[in-house]
Each structure stands twice: as structure tokens, then as C-alpha cells.
Write a structure and sequence with these properties.
The complex is a heterodimer of chains A (327) and B (174).
Chain A: E1 2-6, H1 10-18, E2 23-26, H2 44-56, E3 60-65, H3 75-87, E4 91-94, H4 97-106, E5 112-114, H5 123-133, E6 137-139, H6 146-154, E7 159-167, H7 178-183, E8 199-204, E9 207-212, E10 215-216, E11 236-238, E12 241-243, E13 251-253, H8 258-264, E14 268-271, H9 278-296, E15 317-318
Helix pairs in contact in A: 1-2, 1-9, 2-3, 6-8
Chain B: H1 15-21, H2 23-40, H3 43-46, E1 56-60, E2 65-70, E3 77-82, E4 91-95, H4 97-105, H5 110-115, E5 120-123, H6 125-138, H7 142-146, H8 150-173
Parallel strand pairs in B: 1-4
Antiparallel strand pairs in B: 1-2, 2-3, 4-5
Helix pairs in contact in B: 4-8
The chains are: A alpha/beta (327), B alpha+beta (174).
Chain lengths: 327, 174
């Protein structure tokens, strides 16, 4: 299985590949990708240079152009597709139908991957994207169980890529509007979930109070682990009790399911976290490289499964929807 | 009875005062380092975007002084201030020295440090993200900070790793 790792900067790209990534995914410095954070991402010149650097080392570069183009203002998305093609990217990761249509028509040799933001989780949906735009790979939404993925793979000829580590979204990707309600910006349109300019963190005597768009979304006790300041990870009071109503602050870690995913026919496994940094990607890529190599040798992944807990949101990990224990 | 306060400068053994007397060489060293980076790799500072004129306060836990960092390309500067200084700044980043050094050279994952409450940030969070991503891309080391040649730099970076590991070990046993 191909190990696909995040790269928020050239430094992170190099750290990922040196730690064992087969490919990296990255974005340009604008709203055309779903990690449009201040100071993050690549200039077109950096992208071109780093594609060469990666290719020299046998690694691939996938460019995420995975937000939804705004009607009447599609130039930025067209420009990003053109830049990725000119840089020699191995594929672009796209969600929007218009962007897919443009890339397919203008750059027929450019490989297209369907972003998780498209939330295509059925054989019929995947077949549509493959038939209409020549999509070669689909990144599955993080709402399917491992047996459901196995069943889906049997019904499609398109390569399947599945997230195995990193932040989780409670909603079907591409359809979550929680951030928009509080801040007016969303990952789908602006490339940012809970944009940092809308976040404030106040700490008094160790009690951390995160606010988003002025709304208090949690109070974290002194010394307790914190999560991302997003509405879905917030703690709210309902029927007299405060709890994480949408989702616990926790990270996905599906390393223990790698063997099952491989048997199911999953072609690539993906690490979330372009916004994290080189320290994060070096550790996660190395751990998953070791686990995948162990599988290739016929060994278990168990020795590597607890290596990453210290990186997890809220200090906790979950297999998420892959094991739908709530069913 | 009125209590007669001695002026700060006259107090003996005041750690803040001791460090403040070292202010000129420290400020010169750190400012020179930033400007060297700006000269060598001006593109690094472009990542600050809207925060190109911002100032950040870096406050190591337990230190009586803080560092006011203005990463403004060729005009960059670092000032040493007393911990209780509350001059306006874009953001303040606090934490153990080892963690702050880890953030500086990118060896510490900033999100994990936030989740575990090892570091504390206040002010403009977008400014903090811009600074973090700028430092990440800059790939700086302690040698860069001190302006050391490669051989001395390796020793300095090893010392930095030791400080970080010692700080991590201290945190683990705390």
C-alpha cells in the first residue's frame, strides 16, 4: 500500500519523504485547498522545485485543489490546476465538479484523485466521477466501516485511498457547515475550518477557555488535555450535563487495521495534518512506514501501534468509523 | 507607616535585574541572527503575510524576562523585557524553555504541545499560526540563532537537543 503523507511546507515535504512516505500531498497558498492557513502551503516556485526534489527520490507529489470553486470567481481554481500541471505534479486531488471538468478537459494527462471533500462513499458515486472525468483514485469519506470499505472496493475499479491517522471530522466531509455558522468561513469554500482569526484562547489560573467567533465552546480544566478549537470538538450543556455533544477531541489511528485494509484491496493509506509540521509528519510517517514494512514481512503491526499517542488530539486515539462500535 | 521601596535597579539579587543588565548583548545577538536569516532567505518572511509588522512575546516559564520578537525582515529585532511588561503585541507564547526552543527549530509538534497544555498562547491566533509556519519553513537551528559556523553549530545544536531532552525528562517526572 502507498503511504500518503501531508506536507504543509517544503520542509515538511522533505521530512515526510525522508521518513518513508511514498507520496506527499500539498496545496498552493490560497483558498483553493482545504488547509488555507496563514503561512502554510507552497508558492508555485516552491512546488516546482519540490516536485523535482521528490521525483529524484522516487516519491510522488499530489496537489490538493479540493475546495469548491465559487460561482463567477473560478479563476483561482483554474490557475491552481494549471500551476500543478506545470510543476509536474503526479496527480491533483479535487472535489468540485467544475474543477474536475476543467482539469479533465485542459490537462487530459493529469491524473485526477477525488478528494475526501467530495464525500463519495458508494460505488455509484465513484463510477460517476470515473466515467465523467476519468478519476483514477477516490479518497474515501471517514464514515465507512472496514467491512463496508471491503464491500465497496469489490464493486469499483477505481483505486481506493483511506485515511488511517490524524484529525477526524464528525460530519461527511464537504458538507459540514458548523464553522460557517460561527465564523462565516468553512473548509469547503474558504479552505479553513474554524479560521484562526476567529479563535481566542483565554487562560486564567490554568482554566482554558477557547472561543470561536466570540462563542465560548469549551472550558478545559487546569492540566487537562485540549482539542482543536472547533465547534464539533466543543463541549456544550444539554439536559443539565456538559459533554462533547458532537465528537470527542480525539485522533484517528487505524494502524491496527492496516492488514484488514490491505486485504480489502485499499491501494493507499493517508495521514491527515498538513497544518501540523515536520516534527509531526516525521514521527507519523516513520511509524506507518515501519508498520507497512512489517506487514510486507508477514509480521504484526502491534509493536508500532502505541508510538503516536503523544501526538493525538486530546491525548486520545480512536479507530473511528472503521470500527463502528456504536452500531 | 509608609514602606520605602528601593528602586528596582538598586535591588540586589533581583534575577530580572541581572538579566536586564545582559540585555544589550542578548538583544544584539538575537537581532543579528534574525537579520542574517532575512538576508540569506528573505522569502521566509513572506509567510508572515498580514503579520509582517507584528511583534510577538516569547515568555519562557520561570524566567523573569521575556523576549519581544519583531520578525520584520531586514528590520527584524528582538528586545528583552521584564516579564510584567505588557506593551501591545500580536500574540504571547508561553511555556517551558525546552518547548519554546523545540517550536523554534521545528523539532516539537506545536499542536501536540497545545493539546498537552505544554505551551500557552494568547492574542491573535492567526498571527501565532503565521509565525509557527514561518519558523517551520525557515528550518532554523540554534547555530543560526547564534551565527555559528558549521562545526561549532553542530555542537550548539547538540546542546539544544540536550536542553530539550532534559526539559522533557523533567516534565515527565513532574
Amino acid at each position: 500500500m502507498e503511504l500518503v503523507c501531508p506536507a504543509g511546507s517544503p520542509a515538511m515535504l522533505r521530512a515526510a519523504i525522508e521518513a518513508g512516505a511514498d507520496s506527499v500531498y500539498c496545496g498552493l497558498r490560497d483558498e483553493t485547498n482545504a488547509r488555507n492557513f496563514p503561512g502554510l502551503n507552497f508558492s508555485t516556485a516552491e512546488l516546482k522545485a519540490d516536485v523535482l526534489w521528490a521525483h529524484d527520490r522516487g516519491a510522488k507529489v499530489l496537489v490538493a485543489i479540493n475546495t469548491f470553486a465559487r460561482a463567477g470567481e473560478t479563476d483561482a481554481w483554474r490557475a491552481s490546476v494549471n500551476s500543478a500541471a506545470a510543476a509536474g505534479a503526479d496527480a491533483i486531488i479535487v472535489a468540485d465538479l467544475g474543477v474536475l471538468a476543467y482539469a479533465h478537459a485542459e490537462h487530459p494527462d493529469l491524473r485526477l484523485h477525488l478528494s475526501v471533500q467530495a464525500a463519495a462513499g458508494s460505488p455509484e458515486a465513484i463510477a460517476f466521477y470515473a466515467g465523467a472525468y476519468g478519476v483514477k483514485r477516490v479518497v474515501l469519506p471517514r464514515v465507512l466501516s472496514a467491512p463496508e470499505i471491503a464491500a465497496l472496493v469489490r464493486e469499483t475499479d477505481v483505486e481506493v485511498e483511506a485515511f488511517v491517522y490524524g484529525g477526524l471530522c464528525v460530519m461527511a466531509e464537504g458538507r459540514c457547515a458548523l464553522s460557517s455558522y460561527a465564523t462565516g468561513k468553512s473548509p469547503n469554500l474558504s479552505g479553513v475550518c474554524s479560521p484562526p482569526e476567529a479563535v481566542s484562547l483565554e487562560e486564567t489560573d490554568g482554566l482554558l477557555t477557547p472561543r470561536l467567533g466570540g462563542f465560548m465552546i469549551d472550558q478545559v480544566a487546569p492540566g487537562a488535555a485540549a482539542g482543536y478549537p472547533t465547534l464539533c470538538k466543543g463541549r456544550f450543556e444539554a439536559e443539565g450535563a456538559a459533554s462533547h455533544l458532537f465528537e470527542d477531541p480525539t485522533s484517528l489511528n487505524a494502524m491496527a487495521l492496516l492488514a484488514e485494509l490491505r486485504t480489502a484491496g485499499v491501494r493507499a493509506v493517508k495521514i491527515e495534518g498538513r497544518q501540523r509540521g515536520k516534527a509531526y509528519v516525521a514521527r507519523v510517517a516513520a511509524a506507518f512506514r515501519a508498520a507497512l514494512d512489517a506487514l510486507d514481512r508477514g509480521e504484526t503491526t502491534a509493536p508500532y501501534e502505541a508510538r503516536l499517542t503523544h501526538l493525538a488530539e486530546g491525548g486520545r486515539e480512536t479507530a473511528g468509523a472503521y470500527r463502528k462500535t456504536w452500531r | 507607616m509608609r514602606t520605602q521601596h528601593r528602586p528596582r535597579a538598586a535591588r540586589r539579587g533581583d534575577p530580572a535585574q541581572v538579566l536586564m543588565t545582559l540585555r544589550p548583548p542578548a538583544e544584539w545577538l538575537l537581532t543579528s541572527a534574525l537579520r542574517r536569516v532575512a538576508q540569506r532567505r528573505p522569502e521566509v518572511f513572506e509567510r508572515l503575510g498580514a503579520f509582517a509588522d507584528a511583534a510577538f512575546v516569547i515568555a519562557p516559564d520561570g524566567w523573569p524576562v521575556v523576549f519581544r520578537l519583531a520578525p520584520q525582515g531586514a528590520s527584524s529585532g528582538v528586545q528583552v523585557r521584564r516579564r510584567d511588561d505588557r506593551s501591545p503585541c500580536a500574540a504571547r507564547i508561553e511555556g517551558p524553555l525546552g518547548a519554546l526552543l523545540g517550536l523554534f527549530d521545528g523539532s516539537l509538534d506545536a499542536d501536540s504541545a497545545f493539546f498537552s497544555r505544554a505551551i500557552r498562547v494568547s492574542g491573535d491566533i492567526d498571527a501565532v499560526m503565521a509565525l509557527h509556519n514561518t519558523l517551520e519553513a525557515a528550518e532554523l537551528s540554534l547555530a543560526d540563532l547564534l551565527g555559528l559556523p558549521a562545526t561549532a553549530g553542530n555542537a550548539a545544536n547538540a546542546a539544544l537537543r540536550f536542553v530539550r531532552q532534559a526539559a522533557a525528562a523533567k516534565a515527565a517526572w513532574a
